[in-house]
Write a structure and sequence with these properties.
globular; disordered C terminus; two-stranded parallel sheet; mainly alpha; 313 residues
Length: 313
Amino acid sequence: MELNKKVISANFLMLISTGFIAASFPVTQALLQYWAADIALFTRFALSTLVFLALLKMKGNKDKIIPKNWRAYLFISLFYALFFMSTFEALKYTTAFNAGVIYTLMPGLSLLLSWFLFKDSNIKRYLLPLALSTAASFVVISNGSMNIGDFFAHMNMGDILFIAGTFAMACFFNITKKYTSKEQPLLSTFYVLLGVTFWLGIYVAVSGQEFKAQLDILPLALLLFLVVFCTVITFFSLQYASRIISPVKSSSYSYLTPVFVILINLAFFSMQINAIVIIASLISMASLIYIQWVKPKAISPPLPVCNLQANES
């Protein structure tokens, strides 16, 4: 019963965080009118890390800021940082439409990695709903046009970069699951965010972009929204859920991102949609429910994160 409650909590947190992820797209686009991309990205995660540090201090946590197994956390956080770095670099060359299509591949990549890393025998049980959800998400993103030829006809270096970033995100889902640490979710989330901030600091140093950061009320409000809702809440939700549900189940929530984007556009921008998009959205939701409903067969137990730490004599 206790485990069932945790599963429900994990799925609820993933649902909420998916909505915030969808909201982050227009908010980030608005922020980049006032801030340089690399500075905005680094500041977002640096402030999020400080928020978690404050929460830990409020709870009386006495653990060190730098963990003993810091190499392991740097390794795990690298994949999350790579996703964001490749996203910002890719969008210099490709369109948001192409990026949206590529991102729907992430749950499938996560499933393949789960099979490769864990020898997960559930791959056959998820193939059909994953294929349906990928196709349905493409329909939603393209607003029912279903012209996939346009995607392949205009594929460029940006698309290749975003494919690499999507693969890095799939790796993050699986590695977080495999190398589960003994720390509580709040503490492990802080350690991973600290690692992400470290990698993004290097990204800022080598990106060569012109410094741009306006400190007016609007851009600061946009940044605050990204920090609190789109980073702190979503990242903690991911860390918590990854301990309870499989990487395929947690990553499959990305199929709801286009649906949430449609709802946000309907609510705030009076977007026009057709019946095909509605049907595709229902298919995505039905496939997601099926993926969450299927009980996976047992796979090899997760290894402790300290196994990544080099042995010291």
